[in-house]
User: Fold this.
Amino acid sequence: MFKLIEKFEIKSHDGPGRIGKLNNKTTPGLFLKNEIKIAPSEGSAYNVDKEIAEFNVKETLRLAKENVDTCNVATIQGSKYIDLRIDCLKQLEKIGYNGFIIANSDELLLHPRDLIEIIVTLRKNMHPTSYLIFSFAEPSFMPLLSYIGIDGFLADSSNYYSYLNVLLTPTKTYELETYPIYENITQKELEEKNRETLNFVIKEIQTHMKNSSLRNLVEERSLTNPQNVSALKILDKQYNNYLLEYTQLF
Assistant:
């Protein structure tokens, strides 16, 4: 069986966030698509009728099963329906996967309540040695996502944002047509700057987790945009038991 990334080992927690090792790679971490082998899936829009979402989950499971011998990461489909997401996760674990990408991640960032509910519910239902990867996360969201329990991010988002002529920073995103911070910058140069930002934020997250201070970074970054602060408020108000389960009392 072909496996590029095989074993996920949890080393410690900072809140629900996990410091782990994935074949000598520290998590939370950045992943390039050529580092992992993602099984084909049947994607769908976030806000669709449940019948369509159900069909796409069934197709995703079929494709995942057909490709389990050559892939090690599968996609959790289900659109906005929590029960479909959970069923997709559990069936994928039965097939043999332990690495998962959360579909519709860009849409979830615009729906804080759904974002928190889906990630927390997935974490509660997944095997402890399974791991979650989030795609297209803006850097300001990455500390919160890591705190909730996301174990990795796709580094290819640096190319995605550079294609949109968007500059990433740890706290904001800048459309360079509106905010010409860098003039006459090439897409390749912009991609490199965006990758540097992603690498810095990951190192920042890892260091705070080792010092048990990730929550401080999360609260600082929560002020960067309305969706971020809303997500943290929802997490604290509705999922306090989830946070306390992993929070040290001394």
